[in-house]
Amino acid sequence: MTTMPLETQILCHQCAAVLPVEVGSQFVTCEFCGAKNFIDKSGAVLHYAVRETVDETAASAALRRWMGGNQTVKDLDKKAQLERPSFQRFPMWMVRV
Question: How many Cα atoms occupy the beta-carbon half-sphere of 8 within 13 Å?
Answer without folding.
Answer: 13
